[in-house]
Amino acid sequence: MNEIWTEKYRPKTLSEVVGQKHVTARLESYVHSRNMPHLMFTGPAGTGKTTCSLALARELFGDEWRGNFIELNASDERGIEVVRGKIKDFARTAPIGNAEFKIIFLDEADNLTSDAQGALRRTMEKYSGICRFILSCNYSSRIIDPIQSRCAVFKFRPISPEDISQFLGMIVEKEGVRIDDEAMAGLVRIARGDMRRAVNSLQVAASLGKPIDLDLIYQTAGLANPEAVKSMLETALAGNFIKARDSLDEIMITYGLSGQDVIRQIHSSIFDLGVSDYDKVKLIDKCGEIEFRIVEGSNERIQLEALLAYFIMIGGNAR
User: What phi and psi values does residue 26 have, to the nearest 5 degrees?
Assistant: First the structure.
């Protein structure tokens, strides 16, 4: 297992991209016309923005795609010097072979400073004849309007559970991984639409060399079993503070979770509890308050135990 599976199984063509048919159909029209405007890919992490960029370059340029495509990460190189130097130098050189233009893929473009974005706008305008830009970002609102107006915007959606399950099934079959149905469903659940996270979690679990079950999935993903979290909250609602506190200790030690990790899972489990909607609203509001205190530096053990105490009070009111 020397290869990273996210790279080994990365789709090579637009038709192989999973879960973004509304995007790939438009991109394929650019391939057929042999022309494209500047593009902006926006959406959550792990939904195929980089994969679509690479596949588009391969289909446009064929074997010469590496010479006509450059990938830069704006979170590492975010200043105006990068735009004036590396980006401008690549943009003003002629395409290689029979290509009509070159492509600069700027990943995490929403991390560019405002000055860098201003310089980038001018570069996009000046060299549009021989160079196209693909900007990838999680938050398009952080990109200045003059750049957005120059781009065709593509919205990437979280990958559906069915598409993630199908893609993971293909990897499991090719790699000979032993995994039960419950663990596969757990993988899809923790991915939350992020294909990269799903594949990486599967590879980590498979690297242990034993059959994969649900508990192993949660341990390798750095999450607690949702049933264990739900049981802890139900114990607190029933009024047994000491047992709920012991369950909290066990969850944090067994799965190696931080206070913020526990808060996130408690928040998710609240919706499955057998309390009224009004009580759920109060519990979620309290979770937000406790998470803020932990982020600000409060002792996470004290804050989590205070949250369990609040659950006990809610349970007492329900009784």
Answer: -70, -40
